[in-house]
Amino acid sequence: MVHRAGNEPLQARSPLRLRSGLAAFGVVCAAAGAVAFAMIDHPGWALVCAIVAVVAALDLVIVIWRIRQGPHYQPGRDVPPYEPARSQDIGRTTGRHRKKR
């Protein structure tokens, strides 16, 4: 069993820059594979590589879009993981209800 400290949302970070680098590498390799397979007359493999290149390019676009959204969507250490409760909201229940014992 994994011991949880309770502060995981504060420490959680999304590795978007790593994901963008891997997606860019995937686009380049898959596009090169599509061209190479097309040149040696293997249209099936060229199509597979082209589809992988398109999926990797879409992933790259989404990652860049999320990076450009800024720190609200990728919070730093000084941004809480949720909006703090206001005093008038304390005691108000939302969502699931826990059974009282």
How many beta-strand runs? Answer: 0
Query: Are there runs of 5+ residues with pLDDT below 50, and where?
Result: none
Beta-strand residue fraction: under 5%
**Radius of gyration from the CA trace?**
22 Å
Q: Name the helix and strand elements from N-terminus to C-terminus, one letter apiece.
A: HHH
Describe the structure.
- The chain is mainly alpha-helical.
- It has a domain at 31-75.
- Helices cover 53% and strands 0% of the residues.
- The chain is built from three helices and no strands.
Indicate the topology:
Blueprint: H1 8-11, H2 16-39, H3 43-68
Helix pairs in contact: 2-3
Quick rundown:
The protein has about 100 residues and is mostly helical. It is built from 3 helices and no strands.
For the structure shown, list the relevant keywords:
mainly alpha; rod-shaped; 101 residues
